[in-house]
Amino acid sequence: MKTNNASLSKRCLCLILSFCCMVACAVTPAFATEGTCLIEGGSNQEPERIGGSGTGFIEREVSRKLIGSHVFLSWHPDFDDPLYDVYSYYFQAEKTTIDVSLGASYKFISVGVTISLGDTGVSGYSKKVPLSKVWSRPAIYGDLYEVTYCYGLYDFNLNRWITKQDRVRYVTANTDIVIEYNSQKSALE
Questions:
Q1: pLDDT for 97
Q2: Which of 68, 154, 159, 164 is most exposed, with minimal Cβ within 10 Å?
Q3: Where are the beta strands (DSSP E) in the chain?
Q4: Are 98 and 113 contacting, i.e. CB atoms less than 8 angstroms apart?
Q5: Whole-angstrom distance, CA of residue 96 vs CA of residue 98
């Protein structure tokens, strides 16, 4: 009797998938007892379902803490050195995101900062240097936040986490370009 290899392969695949589903169903409740991500303020609300039912990877913000308001983040990358006796600096309307590394009091972290590009452009704005006959350089200031996220595999059928971990990220908001100036060039380097 001749057997069909394709039919035999399909049966084996079905058996393997059935076994995997049984194992997954047996294991899920044991991991799911880990609990939920607790949102700041005590809310125990489960994540909203996105798409169909079943298991999926989700990430949600748990808390956001202001670390510093209007803190120095970096010198503007389009102006490498301080300039002497400049009347104003021009910035484009177009924006870009740069990575900024912060050290010392901010535990050596890296954040993305959205800023206006420097130099000439079709449309934009200028910032005047408050005094003449001084060294000046554009600086980037903004609010710095520590954001805690919860992420992992979530079972939407049982409304429980299968695996869950916390992650901390640092983000900026309300960024602004400020023209720093000083009589000493070294103060702006």
A1: 87
A2: 159
A3: 55-75, 83-84, 88-102, 109-118, 124-128, 135-155, 160-161, 165-182
A4: yes
A5: 7
**How high is the pLDDT of residue 23?**
43
Q: Please report, for residues 8, 38, 117, the alpha-carbon distance to residue 83 in angstroms, rounded to integers and kept in the order given.
A: 77, 50, 17
Q: Check: CB of residue 66 under 8 Å from CB of residue 143.
A: yes
Q: What pLDDT does 28 receive?
A: 37
Confidence of residue 29 (pLDDT cuts 50, 70, 90): very low
The residues facing 82 across adjacent strands are none
For 71, the token pair is 């803190």
Encode pLDDT of 79-106 as tens digits.
Answer: 989 999 999 999 888 888 888 888 756 5
Q: Which residues contact 84 (CB under 8 A, 6 or more apart)?
A: 133, 134, 135, 136, 185
Dist. CA 178–CA 64, nearest whole Å: 25
Rounded to whole angstroms, how far apart are CA atoms 135 and 182?
5
Which residue type is seen at 25? C
The mean-pLDDT minimum among 70-74, 111-115, 120-124, 165-169 falls in: 120-124
Note the maximum CA span of the chain. Answer: 99
Alpha-carbon distance of 189 to 184, in angstroms, equals 10
